[in-house]
Amino acid sequence: MTCCEKLRVIPTNINLASLKRVNMSGCSRLRTFPDFSSNMELLDVHNTMIEDVPSTIAEGWLRSCELNIGSTRLKRLTHVPEYVRRLDLSNSDIKKIPDCVIGLSELQILSIKNCRKLVLVQGLPPSLLFLHADDCVSLKSVCFSYCKPNVALDDWKCAKSEDELMRKFTFYNCYSLEEEARRVIIQGWENMSVGLPGKEVPSEFTHKAKGNSITISICDWTFSASSRFKACLLFSPPAKWFPHTINIVCRLRSKGVLINEILFYPNKRPWYNSTKIPSQLLTDHLFIFDENLFGFGGGRGLEVDSDIQFEFICKYQNSKIIECGVQILGEEGESSSSSSEWKEQSDGAVEASKDENLVKTSKHTGWRRGLKKLVLMKKKNKNKTE
């Protein structure tokens, strides 16, 4: 029922208990919120005249659902179904994240793209995995105080890889961000990637180099299987470049030997609507992510005793990595540079390596420590039963 421009009201006495998915986007005169069924899985009413979700309807939805309600008519939101997992408020006139969103314990994906009056992002629920805040030209302040990850062991049981648990927050083309907001975004949390406008690699990354490669020489430092690193890449995008198309290969070497290879998608979206135009990067941007140094189980990486070379390759035509930075993280995510002596050397730009067959690892080979413990527990229990 998309783009039915003469549709104004949906009858309330329709019994459609089995109806699960409804798309009424673009019904530009629709004013009343449709009340079809408490078993809805998806309701798309973006670009309509609906201004809020009635409390009776929000309280009646009894299952996990996806709600797309963004439009310029939406200036506030007072009620949202408790079990909503995916919420799209893009193109709305909201000025901050609605209070009713903060308490959504199952919300995993929030899109607030092109909310041009939005000035504050705050109170994000701990369950949130994906935040798309692109093109929010008035956005100044960001606070993650309630957004600290609370992933439990039960969540790891369902995860097939670390990629499923990695948070991805994007702030593409948000040029009004204040310095403190940029600091909060860049600092982030462990197992999190972010994208935002930038002109240089931040000072937090003490190991920096021009181009797409950096080698860090190590003195008196012992790595463990759980050692992690945080990387920052400064990109100069080509014309008409859409970030959802990018992927980055990160190769780690020691003494010329490939010890880990990671395939990273800065803007991989589990919830991508092909009818929506993705954001186009207008200027240079920063991509920041963290990963395990040596992949699942550690392997040869524990034998590193001289240096580690980080090489970053952007697999997109005419894209350019201007600068890169690396920070080695400790057991709890803090920088290790303060407790060890480092001597770094800039490699500058290097060509994409051709030794693809040295080590073939799956994308995002680093798994969370809790997931590793779970696997070890399962193996131990299996051996006991045998």
What does this structure look like?
This protein is of the alpha/beta class and 386 residues long. The protein has a domain at 205-363. Helix content is 11%, strand content 26%. It is built from 5 helices and 19 strands. The chain has helices spanning 55-60, 99-102, 153-158, 179-187, 369-385; strands spanning 21-23, 42-44, 65-68, 84-88, 109-111, 120-121, 130-132, 141-142, 167-170, 192-197, 207-210, 213-219, 228-236, 248-254, 257-264, 285-292, 307-314, 320-329, 341-346. The strands form 3 sheets. A 12-stranded mixed β-sheet has the order 1-2-3-4-5-7-9-10-16-13-18-11, covered by helices on one side. Helix 2 (99-102) links the parallel strand 4 (84-88) and strand 5. The longest helix has 17 residues, at 369-385. Mean pLDDT is 75; it is low at 150-161, 271-275 and 331-379.
Keywords:
386 residues, alpha/beta, twelve-stranded mixed beta sheet, five-stranded antiparallel beta sheet, 5 helices, 26% strand
Radius of gyration: 23 Å
Main β-sheet description: 12 strands, mixed
Helix content: 10-25%
Average of per-residue pLDDT values = 75
Structural class: alpha/beta
Q: Spans of 5+ residues with little confidence (pLDDT < 50)?
A: 150-161, 271-275, 331-379
N- and C-termini, Cα separation = 58 Å
Major sheet: order of its strands?
A: 1-2-3-4-5-7-9-10-16-13-18-11
Total beta strands: 19
Q: What percent strand?
A: 25-35%
Question: Strand-and-helix sequence, N→C?
Answer: EEHEEHEEEEHEHEEEEEEEEEEH
- What is the approximate shape? elongated
Tally the helices.
5
Region (Disordered): 334-355
InterPro entries: LRR-SigEffector_domain, LRR_dom_sf
Protein name: Disease resistance protein ADR2-like
Biased composition (Basic and acidic residues): 341-355
